[in-house]
Every structure is written in structure tokens, then in C-alpha cells.
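Escalated from tier 1: NAI holo job.
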Amino acid sequence: MANNLLKGKRGIIFGALNDMSIAWQVALKAHEEGAEFVLTNAPIAMRMGAINELAEKTNSLVIPADATSLEDLENLFSKAMEHLGGKIDFVLHSIGMSPNVRKGKHYTDIDYKFYNQTLDISAGSLHKTLATAHKMDALNEWGSVVALTYIAAQRIFPDYNDMADAKSLLESITRSFGYHYGIKKKVRVNTISQSPTVTTAGQGIKGFDEFINFSDQMSPLGNASAEACADYCVAMFSDLTRYVTMQNLFHDGGFSNTGVTQPVIEKFGNIE
Ligand code: NAI
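Tier 2 regenerated the structure:
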């Protein structure tokens, strides 16, 4: 049910690769809620993904940008402002990639060139996005920037590998930039820490299918879906959450505050 929560707002949505992507769902919901936005992804992802289909559905323009390139980001913000007719009100950072995970490198034996790429793509890109917007004064006052993260930033999930380090950095950038941008322009910056979700990035993690079931049973409300995450993002972009900033917001059905649940403990009943 749409409530025009984002009517009159202009946005930039990073990271919609295909219809499983969390960013894809955010774009659909933001459109339903009356927002106008630009879609962006890495030039290479344009060829693999179905972003043009989403652009058609949401009546939006696609502007390719590698989120690790300052030049691409500057071009993105200036073209987006030109196309949308003014400064930007919301940004979704929905970007994650680890070459170490992709190549099956163990955390104790990672390739450091890959490691730098993981940190740059999955976390540094948020700093670069915010720094570009800040320099260009591209965001409106009370604008809202949301990046997606995972609880492996706080606790060890062994197969999440170096993405855990990237997510810790992402959450730290959120706090630090949230402070500076808040003081300067009342722009808010938050992360949403989402349940494991079946997407292209998610499925790259070893043992993901078993893990997603475990997480579901460890969450009093069950795993949160991509659609539900999109609803939360829309709430964070709206004026109903104006004083929320510099936070890591768990959207995980209660997983983060659960020690154990009955269905999980019962699985250990027959162990000698
Ligand atoms: P996805 O694979 O659909 O999205 C990842 C996106 O990052 C893709 O669109 C990809 O093209 C983009 N990307 C990679 N390198 C890029 C670059 N250099 N420049 C610009 N874009 C680039 O997967 P998903 O799951 O929707 O991921 C979105 C975010 O949600 C990521 O930050 C991920 O870590 C986070 N997240 C995902 C969870 C899951 O279980 N799927 C759980 C918690 C957080």
C-alpha cells in the first residue's frame, strides 16, 4: 500500500543487478511511494544485469558508475541532479563484492590485492560517494543516505571472510561521515543490517543455504525478506525518521538479540 512517503524526493539507487537484488526491491518501493530517482551500477554489471527492465518499470534513468572511481561518482551526481532537476534527497548504497570470497581464499590466507579491492568496493565506495556529494553540495538538507550491512561486522561468521572487515569499516564510515555531514547540512547517514537474503552476492558465501535456514530459526520473527528491507529503506528515506543518524539499524527479525531459540536447541537433543 503506497502512502506517497517519498513524494517530491529525488534519489540515487546503487546496486540493482537483477530482481533478486535488495536494491531492485528498494527501487520498486521508492517508485510506489512517489520518488523520482536515477539507477546506477558498475559498467560491467550493466552487461550482466537486467537494470534496463527496472528503469522502464520505475521510469528512471540509468547512469553507469564504478563506485570506487571519484570521476565516475562526480559524473553520476552531476548528471543525476541535471536529470532530476535539483539536489538529491536520498541515496541507497547497496554494494558488496569480495574477490577473496569469489576465489575461495581462506581468511587466514587472503590475497592482499584482493583484500584492498574488497575494502574499496564494499566500504571505501561509501566514503567516496559521501565525499563527492559533500564537495559538490549535491544533497539537500535532511537528506538520507542508507548503506546495507551485515552482523558479521560485530560477530564472527567464518565463511563471510574479509567481507566482515569491509562491513566493520562501512559502519565506521557511516558514524564518522554522519557526524560531519550532520553538522554541515543535517544530512543523515545510517546502515541497515539485514538478515541473510537470497541474492547474487549472498549466494557467493560458502554454505549460504544452510546458513540462511539457521538464521531463520534463530530469529523470533524469521529472516527479513528483501521486500521488507525495502520498506525499511523507504522509511529511512522519508521525513518520518529525520532524527535518526549515525546508527547501525538491525533489520533481522530479532536475530541480533537472540542467544538461542527452542527449534535450534531441539536439534541438539540427541547428541551423546
Ligand atoms: P547483489 O549482488 O544483487 O548486489 C550487489 C551489487 O554491488 C551488484 O549490483 C553489483 O553490481 C554491485 N557492485 C559491485 N561492484 C561494484 C562497483 N565497483 N561499483 C558499483 N557497484 C558495484 O546482492 P545484494 O545481496 O542485493 O547486496 C546488496 C548489499 O546488501 C550489499 O552491500 C550486501 O553486502 C548487503 N547485504 C546482503 C545480504 C544478503 O544476504 N544478500 C545480507 C546483508 C547485507
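Residues 14-15, 17, 21-23, 41-42, 45, 66-68, 94-97, 121, 148-150, 194, 196-197, 199-202 surround NAI (CB under 6 Å).
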